[in-house]
Amino acid sequence: MKVLVLNCGSSSVKYKLYDTDANIVLAEGLAERIGMQGSRIKHLGLGENIKISIEYALSGHEEAIKTVLHLFTHDNYGVIKNIDEIQAVGHRILHGGERFSSPVAIDNEVLDLLIQCVELAPLHMQHNIAGIKICQKLINHATQVAVFDTEFHQTMPDYAYIYPIPYDYYKKYKVRKYGFHGISHKYVAQRVAEILCDKSKVEDLKIISCHLGNGASLCAIKSGKSIDTTMGLTPLAGLMMGTRSGDIDPAVIPFLAEKERISLEEVVKVLNEKSGVLGIFGASSDFRDVIKDAGAGNDRARLALDMFIYRVAKSIGSLIPVMGGLDILVFTAGIGENSSEIRRRICEKFVNIGIEIDEQLNLENGAEIEISTVNSTVKVLVIPTDEEKMIAQETISVAKCCSSHKMIS
Ligand code: ADP
């Protein structure tokens, strides 16, 4: 089956085309700066080892997706003969609210429900939905499937997801913790099960998945289900991130609005875009820069790094009693997969509970590997995440289910 995975952002469209029968990626890429000067598509046609970066005047998302589809069948760069070969499109959707606890085929009713979720994450959701509508128009024959970043966390118990504010706000507005990075945390849980093979044992496992990228979150996974996570109503909550503050005293918001004479929205924008590691270090949100400058004696870089590690470790600690223990600690995403220094420094904070990593194994980066010693009380793994593969997998199962329903009826 040929499956297209799409992630539509405000000015970008990330895509990956799979041939799931041959188990290969046919093409992948990124259309960026959509609607701006210098818009371009970076395209990789893996079948033929094609790597191109072309400037296109992409006035909007529809033109971007049209151009990408054209590249799939291009005389020189093409990987399929006809767009009709694409049988399903998996859309990465940021927020499914309480309505969606599993991936779903998109029909008009589902689209209406998705539109109701826009108010929970307007910036992302309007573009996610635009992507769906464009594909309904351009690849009409394919089953459109919504795969949510929130759905994996729908198994959290109420005492974990309700905020301690008047209960009426939850009832009236559905203000609660939802959690994000669910596609990545689910992939990690699935890989742990595959790596350990013994399914019966996996049922009982207590895992903490550390997705440490530009955005960062932890997830407590018990018996394969998310039972708590660090992000909240929005991805601003929880850990300190590249540019996001994570958890702070909410009273800081009106205080800063008054002192800086800016609106509440502007303060929230500062917390989303100018805070976290960037806010402390000042020069960059990229952890490679922070690590390099901290090593060269820059005290603000040192502080940003110390704060990040301290906060990740503190949050891991808070999730251990939630599960009644910890069997497996997994590091994933840009920092989790590639920074042996950050992994080592986080694990060092748990020496007292018997976590021990092998310094040599931990130097390996970007690969799937167990880095704990045989004496460690907790297995520590590095698992490179593959959210697109997870979306493709979910999309296929929904599409297959739809086609068998069609055959029955
Ligand atoms: P996102 O998908 O949220 O944009 P990624 O998972 O791609 O984020 O992670 C991006 C982050 O990973 C960046 O902050 C980058 O600096 C960091 N990163 C990548 N490689 C390394 C490395 N070798 N050492 C430290 N950080 C790294």
TrEMBL record:
Q: What is this protein called?
A: Acetate kinase
Q: What is its EC number?
A: 2.7.2.1
What the protein does comes down to:
Catalyzes the formation of acetyl phosphate from acetate and ATP. Can also catalyze the reverse reaction.
Q: How does it assemble?
A: Homodimer.
Q: Which HAMAP family match?
A: Acetate_kinase (MF_00020)
Q: ATP-binding as a keyword?
A: yes
Cofactor remark from the record: Mg(2+). Can also accept Mn(2+).
- Listed GO MF terms: acetate kinase activity; ATP binding; magnesium ion binding
Q: Which Gene3D superfamilies match?
A: 3.30.420.40
Q: Where is this site: Transition state stabilizer?
A: 181, 244
